Structures
1.
Amino acid sequence: MKTCLIVDDSTVVRMVARRILGELKFVTREAVNGAEALESCARSMPDAILLDWNMPVMTGIEFIEMLRCMSGGNVPRVLFCTTENEVGRIRQALDAGADEYIMKPFDSEILHTKLDQLGLIDA
């Protein structure tokens, strides 16, 4: 089974993502900010990370820049999931190391499609 770390300060977003990812047969872990997410990755690197941009303690950009410098930090496929929709922000996320970018609110079809495009959905 694939693993996904859900990193978002919103309880509702984490709950929705957990439900959708569970339907897609992912084992999920959660973090409410980038610092918690880095600690989680240091313990066990996930296959995928669903990452918010705006969080307390550490932004999604700060997190991904630190993640990509960690041992094994190049492995997880990172999907930014945010309300930030400016082209410059999307470019910043991709330049920082994100693999994909989806907008909130998202649904199961969008998440399934993006994860499949990243090769994370088993046939």
2.
Amino acid sequence: MNNNSRRKFITQSALTVAGFSLLKSKAFSKPFANDHITGIQLYSVRDDMKKDPAGTLKQLAALGYKDVEHAGYADRKFYGYTPADFKKLLSDTGLTMLSGHSSLDGDRWDKSNNNFTDKWKYTFEDAAAVGMKYVISPGVDENLCKNEDDFKWYMQLFNKTGELSKKSGITFAYHNESYEFNHYLNNVRLYDILLKSTDPSLVYQQIDIGNMYGPGGRAMEYLKNYPGRFFSMHVKDEITSSTHDEGYESTVLGKGVIGVKEILDYAKKNGGTKQFIIEQESYQGLQPIDCAKEDLEIMKKWGY
């Protein structure tokens, strides 16, 4: 699996749009109408969203999805729509969008002004305008992970972003990729340093149980070692692959090696996890929308 596939996609989406121009579980309960919510990360149907956002959202709603998570914000637009227009599109389709992915890189801080860039500030203003509750950064800026001093400064930027986001009524969060599990500083895994360096009240955590698997991370271990830290989960299964960086690629839930249901049940019962976001990035010859249908059917059989 590419360490930064989603981060690269978000960056490329920005260029495309321009061309078209923690605490315990109680802290996480308010945005969820029931005891949990099941949604889909729109990166799962990224090509469909690029071609026909409105039609794809209607298809997902027809399949039974109630919530989506974006990976398509750029130039103050969501998949080419203004926040107001995309909010209306979601409403007309019967969907909510509680969360979305926008990358926190080092260039979000303007060192000359000792402040965040306007572009980064707008991310949270627009998230609030479209009705989101969480802005989630997928992966780390690898340029800031080479030495202890740079990484310490970077973690301070995470905490400062958590303070910034609150001004717009948004909670900031982090989503793991794979890089954090096979890179170390002073013999300590980056992901563990990140979890210990970020303030749980300022930086929430979304655990991706698939991304970590190839480089040796195990979701159950982290759920047990950091109880209550993961308000959200990317629900993903993995099979071996000779074409992906970490030796694995995602597949339809229940067909891989992760042991997904056991992890889900533990996270819901013991970990304070309230949001379960389906994500499938590889399809083994199937159509992405068909995988989305099958994934949701399996989640429903499992009680989610």
3.
Amino acid sequence: MADKDGLKVAKDYHVGEAFANQGDFQVKGANGLDWGMKHRLSKIFDPKTGKTVMFAFDHGYFMGSTAGLERLDLTVPKLMPYVDVLMCTRGALRTCIPASNRCGVALRTSSGSSMLDDDLSHEVVAVDIEDAIRLNVDCMAVQTFIGADGQLESLDNLSQVINAGMQYGIPTLGVVAVGKNMERTDKYFKLATRIVAEMGAQIVKTYNCEHFDEIVAACPVPIVVAGGKKLPEDEALTLAYDVIRQGAAGVDMGRNIFQSEHPVEMAQAVRKVVHEGFTDKEAYQFYQELIH
């Protein structure tokens, strides 16, 4: 195995230089994948822009009923015309989401302790590949705790899901989790996103941080940025704008959409940033015009 002693600090990320193995497919790192995998990735990343607006509402798998998501059956269908991907649990998908919708589906496949537990890092694979196939999902999401007590377990979970997905042409979304003892630094995210990608995940979800453009450059698969905690609408749009201009392939807005006073209008504004090149100020002005 490689000796970790004496390694040089990475520094030459060639930020701004195009990914070398892009080919003619819009998704970074997917040029060598087979047709079925690419077809599903095209449900996630728009073929015209190569980007995505995900809408996460899988919070109930450890938080139970969440403010803004008390009635999934009423909240989510109103937002579906304005997002590309629904990130959810199989229970929510089957009970609350009309099967006639055209959105991609990122299925939460890992599960663990509830928010009542002080340590959320110990998860298991809770959904098998057969059920993912029955649901015709476009990717399977696995929480990954790098540097936490549950690191080995979560990497094992990630490997299991990636291996099963490769058999049936279903991509895996590795979700970089940030526990209470982990710092949101570029050093940490460079480590975590690269590990998840090199394990074989076709998509990585992570957070914004300093030197985010270096993290994007060093990761050989697309990075989707989590919105995180609820921010004022103008700040959430600035977050989206900052990561997109630094090379993110999309954003996954949950609370910054469903906890907004105007969630439908907020989803439309986020879409303007991701797919239409709006600046944060332009998108916020658009949002203000919609609500007045």
4.
Amino acid sequence: MARFERELSGALGAFWKKNAEQEIEKMQTRADNGEIRTDAQGAAFWASNGKALPSDSAEILGYTTFEFDSTATADLREAQTIAFLAGYRHTPTAEERAEMQAAFGKGTTVVDCLSGQKIRI
């Protein structure tokens, strides 16, 4: 049972049950106000930026009357993450390499913590 389910069921106490109910109400209001939309596959996304709902938001949305496909939402989120990381990976410019060399020293291998790309300077 997921954390939110336990909160909503009251298994974690009255405070968390009330909080979960309030989160559902907030998400229903967002859906009713058009802040959340779906694409042709039924994936839910934020109208403001076109990004797929995070998994926790999608889980809460599942308790509202808003109709969407949770699998399509997860697929859209994954595709957007892959596209972001692919766009992030790039060959460092001469200026960036000079900055890395000044910071870490010549002959050092620097690893980009987001992309995993190893750069020998």
